[in-house]
Amino acid sequence: MAPKQKQQGTVFAGMNTVSIKEVARLAGVSIATVSRYINAPEKVSEKTRAKVQAAIKTTNYSPNTLAQSFRRGRTNMIMVVLPSVGDPFFEQVLTGIRTAAQAKGYSIVIEETQRNTMTADQIGAMLVSKQTDGILLLASLSPFGTEILSANSQRRLPIVIGCETVSPDLAKFSGVHIDNIAAGIEATEFLISNGHRRIGMITGQVASLLTQDRELGYRKALKKAAIDCSDGWVVNGELSIAGARHAMRALLKHPERPSAVFCATDEMAIGALHEVKQAGLSVPGDISIMGFDDMRFAAVSDPPLTTIAQPAEIIGERAIERLCQEIEAGKSAVCEQEILPHRLVMRGSVAAPSS
Amino acid sequence: MAPKQKQQGTVFAGMNTVSIKEVARLAGVSIATVSRYINAPEKVSEKTRAKVQAAIKTTNYSPNTLAQSFRRGRTNMIMVVLPSVGDPFFEQVLTGIRTAAQAKGYSIVIEETQRNTMTADQIGAMLVSKQTDGILLLASLSPFGTEILSANSQRRLPIVIGCETVSPDLAKFSGVHIDNIAAGIEATEFLISNGHRRIGMITGQVASLLTQDRELGYRKALKKAAIDCSDGWVVNGELSIAGARHAMRALLKHPERPSAVFCATDEMAIGALHEVKQAGLSVPGDISIMGFDDMRFAAVSDPPLTTIAQPAEIIGERAIERLCQEIEAGKSAVCEQEILPHRLVMRGSVAAPSS
DNA sequence: CCAGGGATTGTAAACGTTTACAAATTGCCT
DNA sequence: AGGCAATTTGTAAACGTTTACAATCCCTGG
Predict the structure, then answer these.
(1) At a CB cut-off of 8 Å and minimum separation 6, what does A159 contact?
(2) Which nucleotide's C1' sits nearest to the alpha carbon of A40?
(3) pLDDT 10s digits, A269-284
(4) Under an 8 A CB cutoff, do A131 and B84 touch?
(5) What is the pTM of this model?
(6) Omega before B303 cis (within 30°)?
(7) DSSP secondary structure code for residue A239 in this structure
């Protein structure tokens, strides 16, 4: 409370902050030299370096990043857009993202599409107001993703797409993802090779590119195996446990009940699995369940989930690395797709049909 | 490629941006007026308002938030520190956090302690460099949390603690949380009332305040019931599925195997449950399992988890509201604890002991 | 018609940093 | 010692805003 502070600097939240000026005064040099010491130490002589270092230590100086960002026109922040941070799969991607971002000196700001928080105007404002240096788009769930894309037509901010494939005629961006169609085919063919013929699918909202491609793979595999599935065996639902349970309930009521169900997501698979057991049926005895993602809860469900594993962390890392490249190069609108391998992991939720 | 751009404004990532100057020129007013139009429209006359609005529209102007933040000394960002975004419980808290933050006009930057990403220096630098206006600390897991607290002794940034209780002699901060001790007692007493006497506990690392308090409640309840538990019935482990499985394995090897296990976290409970089933035992037949948090996977495990539900979203909302108050008031170091109610939810993982 | 006051606008400084440019210093060679 | 180049340093402008203060305008009441 005693007003014993006399140094220069601004007051913020009741506390002084030293600026570069104070350091310069104390070290007996100009502010330019201090700035150089910070950004390019090799440009200042040994002697001065020592003086500045000492001054910095005693003042406990640390550059005002706000001023730096302002001056440099760079925030060193990347906006990551994904459906939900709580999705165990995206969490893994996020881990990779954070690792890579930290290595490159970037911070992450997360925007969740499932919360649908921003209006189109807000998105445009955010893009145009330079709050982030680039965008990593992990879910172009309408309308958010497409709005970002169109808002960006005004102001070309580097964008990289992750996890899903955006049709290249819509927008030309680099992307990092697995081949969701191929993986969908593989999952479905695995069910077929186990002897299943009545194969249902629980998939996400129509707008979700991610699940669209998996569904496409499913349809292709069935077609190739000459299995007709034009009935009500494909159910769209929310990408959540509740959504999947609801979808499964519909599937169970189907006159010709499927003997296997391919879920577009492990979380949905968990929901579906629970619903099946609730109905007094067994997995995989009565119904086989196939998941997708290999999230961490997949291995400890009962039965453990047979699923498709994605290299989630690596997707995150690679996507950030690409994005950083584009940011640093100052050019966007490259269009290079990096396809990473997926892997079918067999556990206990798929078996041969009983009937 | 054609150098046909001639307007004023800076170039960033290959694209011009209009500044307030350009708008002022176009509207035929001073930049001060434009600024006022944006921040306090009622201060500018109707006529001018129209002119400025038109100019803004045609230039597609949007204020440079970097410059604003710099000038105002406020970023409108809040740093949220938590163990991991992927933890389904914290995800729920995050939902509340985002909701409240958005309502108040703040963005969220997340720092995860489990990744242990920042060094003490980095933390100090971040605090001192004004990148965020305040901190919401949801996990003072050593050393990160305490480092933040001590780093902040230099520069008083508003801090609010969420979910856990920090001993007030360490630091005086406001907090929003449930009464973890009482909840721990309640959980344990529920097991006791079901007839259990050999009750184990799987808890987090010693440094985790969150689980410390729950463990304390457990001990208190046992003491009160005159049950001795000084043996190896309390196992510390990582706050993860793997950690819990490891701990459960130890518990199963115990000469006097517990008939019930209280897990400090639902995620750990899921791991423990799986491990029990792996060992060929049944839940709750052979061993009852009690969780904590009521995360979304708790209801769909097999058997569904009996657990303690926390008002996660509300904790997040209230914590942000408090933090914003402190930020706006400019004062920190208030010390008001807001205790929210918890609730025991009975499902299938707890029953009377068989023996 | 003018004084006076409130509403509205403009001027200019400031925020903390980076950086082009000029100035000063150093070291080296003859 | 003198001259030149390379190295090191200082000066000052700029980034886009906000805001205190001064200047102007418009209106009202006498």
Answers:
(1) A134, A135, A136, A137, A148, A149, A152, A171, A173, A323, A332
(2) C18
(3) 999 999 999 999 999 9
(4) no
(5) 0.86
(6) yes
(7) S
